[in-house]
Design brief:
globular, 4-stranded mixed β-sheet, D-Amino Acid Oxidase, Chain A, domain 2
């Protein structure tokens, strides 16, 4: 049986960041991170958009608002230190018509309260940043938004974690709790403290420790369509004004680290937790669980799940995706959008008592374990300060 002081379950950007922070705070502690896949970042962390968000979407009293601005600064500095290419192309948020203007004003208000650099501009000024952009009267520009290749960040963090003394074991899957030990597919691990950063399976593991009683993960599939146009054909990220009642930002243009455009993502209800492509990773138990939960939401959710599901499933169509993107920019031709990217799955937390999606980060824990139940977008951007927050909570719990 292996022993360690801290066991971190999950090798995504959150798990790696927490393991590094634990080791930084306790230089003599034995920190072990286990990841079920052959490499770190195989799920959400390595499949996300790569956008380093600025932090103006989020309610000022939220953890997301607190961590996104600082996370943007720290992760930008980290990428520069590690010479990981960043595309500092910024972001335009545009209005489709007059009905979007009040929400655009709300984004500006949130940005000002959150201390985010934002520029409000006319439609003519917006075109000076992106000549092809389409907006009604006004737009917001975020100069601090940038993009990066997520796996390059994960690889650098994994190398740093190993160099700093974190023991990383890939191909090691959590199988259950056995008194004070954790069972894996390889052997048992006796851990002084367990940190659950398992993403899509965070709720399942948390329940083994008596947590996540009112929460369950509801998976949503994210797809992007890549443009065949040359790099620089669109200069900046272009986003619509979002529906601030739900955590999804709508189909938008993302400019990758190498200057290529992609449109998406979808937020299609997935049929099981790792429902990436076809029947891969099929799990009949999860299918029954997710389907029954979805049917329950159709009957009466705290948000319009029926409309969301219908609208998102329609985005399996390339023509639908291109049509939605064409509202944001001129010259969007379906012939230039032929290639789908790697699907990602958002591990979205659902409060099953209120039947509503959780909009903010959610942690539960005690003096034996801590569980990261909701670490959805912009968790990649927030990863470094959020890891400090998790470790602060652990420090308080074990005093």
């Amino acid at each position: 049986m292996q022993t360690c002081d801290f066991l971190v379950i999950g090798g995504g950007v959150i798990g790696l960041s927490i393991a590094r922070e634990l080791r930084r705070r306790r230089t003599d502690a034995r920190v072990l991170l286990i990841e079920k896949e052959p490499s770190c970042g195989a799920h959400a962390s390595g499949r996300n958009s790569g956008v380093l968000h600025a932090g103006f979407y989020y309610s000022p009293d939220s953890l997301k608002a607190k961590f996104t601005r600082l996370g943007n600064e720290r992760l930008t500095a980290y990428c520069e230190e590690k010479r990981i290419p960043l595309n500092k192309c910024g972001k335009l948020v545009v209005a489709k018509d007059a009905t979007d203007l009040p929400a655009l004003d709300e984004l500006l208000r949130r940005g000002q309260i959150n201390g985010i650099e934002l520029q409000t501009m006319t439609d003519v000024e917006a075109k000076s940043i992106e000549p092809r952009v389409k907006t009604y009267q006004r737009a917001l520009f975020s100069p601090r938004t940038s993009t990066v290749k997520p796996l390059q960040v994960i690889e650098a963090m994994q190398q740093d974690a190993t160099r700093e003394g974190v023991n990383i074991q890939c191909g090691t899957a959590y199988r259950g709790r056995q008194n004070s030990a954790v069972r894996t597919n390889r052997d048992a691990i006796e851990a002084g403290y367990v940190v659950n950063a398992a993403g899509l399976y965070a709720d399942k593991i948390a329940m083994d420790y008596g947590f996540s009683e009112k929460y369950r993960i509801l998976p949503f599939k994210g797809l992007y369509l890549y443009s065949d146009e040359p790099p620089g054909a669109i200069r900046t990220n272009i986003y619509p004004v979002p529906d601030l009642r739900n955590p999804f930002l709508g189909v938008h243009f993302t400019i990758t680290a190498d200057g290529k455009a992609k449109i998406g993502p979808t937020a299609i209800p997935a049929l099981w937790r790792e429902n990436y492509e076809g029947m891969g990773n099929f799990n009949v138990g999860e299918l029954v669980e997710v389907a029954s939960r979805g049917l329950g939401l159709l009957a009466g959710a705290g948000f319009d799940f029926r409309r969301l599901a219908i609208e998102e499933i329609a985005k399996y169509s390339r023509s639908k995706m291109v049509s939605l993107a064409s509202v944001l920019a001129e010259g969007v031709d379906e012939r230039n959008y032929q290639t789908w990217g790697r699907p990602g799955i958002r591990a979205q937390l659902l409060d099953i008592t209120k039947k509503k999606l959780e909009m903010d980060f959610v942690l539960e824990g005690n003096d034996r374990s801590m569980h990261v139940l909701n670490a959805v977008s912009p968790a990649f951007t927030c990863s470094l300060p959020f890891a400090s927050h998790v470790c602060d909570q652990i420090d308080k719990a074990i005093k």
